[in-house]
């Protein structure tokens, strides 16, 4: 590589995007399974699976009603009117997921989902797997089936049909670059009419995730922790530093401690009165609550310390294993480059 140019002069010469083929509709680069950068057109099927499939949400599908209502998402003008901050997020698993801080994540509509030829080439399934009986389809045909990919793509497209209903929604989407800037309002109207005529939002034609609109992130995290017994691996970790972890866990402990202090103060006032000072049940309750007030915060802080220790150990082990894996790949790449 050191003896040749990384690119030539043609890279900066304006030309027709049609010369790029499918590359004109895809991101500039993509991340492979081993966390390397590559061209999306190199393994376009793997790229589409990562960009559109919502397996993470489908795994907790039976419990999604706990995190959101089974109805299309509310339009963008409603999101803005209710003071929700729109966060542009390319992760499909975070599309239409909102945080307690009133921030909703939205994945921009990819250009390739607005190209009929791309649908024909990569998203429409025409194999025997979709036209034959399931028992007559072999394993190889099942692996090459595009049915689920098609349902995810159509579901994602239908979500924008609900998000961008009014012209005001369209201008909000353009402001946040959620829609390609080449699309006009008239084009969007025509597209929606065709989608509705073709029954694109029919529940039978879309992935079950898109039967739900906005999903609450804190509840998705609890679903993963409780129903999948993974207390250290939530749906999406909301903190990036240990300081944020302590803040999240100490906030309820602090609120509980303040409440305990108020109760203890009220009990002291009660014990100063003749009626309660001579009451045996109140004396027992005061004794028990005093012991709890002493031990409760200590147990809470100890619990937070255990959680921090487990999280720290888990992160260190994960980082070390990932480093070993990646550097092994780098060494293999260096060996290949040195071969004659």
Automatic annotation (TrEMBL):
Keywords: Membrane, Transmembrane, Transmembrane helix. The chain crosses the membrane at residues 249-271, 291-313. The keyword Membrane applies. InterPro entries: DUF6601. This is Uncharacterized protein. It comes from Penicillium bovifimosum.
């Amino acid at each position: 590589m050191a003896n040749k140019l990384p690119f030539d002069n043609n890279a900066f010469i304006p030309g027709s995007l049609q010369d790029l083929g499918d590359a004109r509709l895809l991101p500039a680069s993509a991340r492979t399974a081993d966390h390397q950068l590559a061209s999306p057109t190199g393994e376009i099927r793997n790229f589409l699976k990562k960009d559109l499939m919502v397996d993470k949400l489908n795994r907790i599908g039976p419990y999604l009603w706990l995190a959101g209502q089974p109805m299309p998402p509310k339009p963008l003008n409603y999101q803005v009117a209710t003071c929700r901050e729109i966060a542009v997020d390319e992760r499909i698993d975070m599309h239409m997921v909102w945080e307690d801080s009133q921030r909703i994540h939205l994945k921009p509509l990819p250009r390739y989902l607005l190209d009929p030829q791309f649908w024909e080439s990569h998203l429409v399934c025409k194999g025997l797997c979709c036209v034959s009986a399931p028992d007559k389809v072999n394993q190889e045909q099942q692996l090459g089936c595009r049915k689920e990919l098609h349902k995810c793509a159509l579901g994602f497209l239908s979500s924008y049909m609900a998000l961008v209903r009014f012209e005001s929604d369209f201008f909000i989407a353009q402001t946040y670059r959620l829609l390609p800037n080449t699309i006009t309002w008239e084009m969007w109207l025509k597209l929606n009419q065709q989608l509705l005529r073709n029954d694109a939002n029919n529940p039978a034609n879309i992935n079950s995730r898109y039967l739900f609109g906005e999903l609450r992130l804190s509840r998705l995290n609890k679903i993963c922790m409780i129903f999948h017994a993974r207390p250290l691996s939530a749906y999406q970790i909301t903190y990036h530093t240990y300081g944020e972890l302590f803040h999240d866990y100490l906030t309820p402990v602090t609120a509980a401690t303040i409440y305990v202090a108020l109760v203890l103060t009220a009990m002291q006032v009660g014990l100063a009165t003749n009626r309660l000072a001579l009451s045996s049940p109140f004396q027992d309750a005061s004794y028990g609550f005093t012991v709890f007030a002493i031990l409760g915060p200590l147990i809470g802080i100890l619990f937070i310390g255990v959680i921090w220790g487990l999280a720290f150990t888990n992160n260190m082990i994960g980082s070390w294993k990932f480093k070993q894996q990646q550097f092994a790949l780098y060494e293999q790449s260096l060996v290949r480059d040195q071969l004659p």
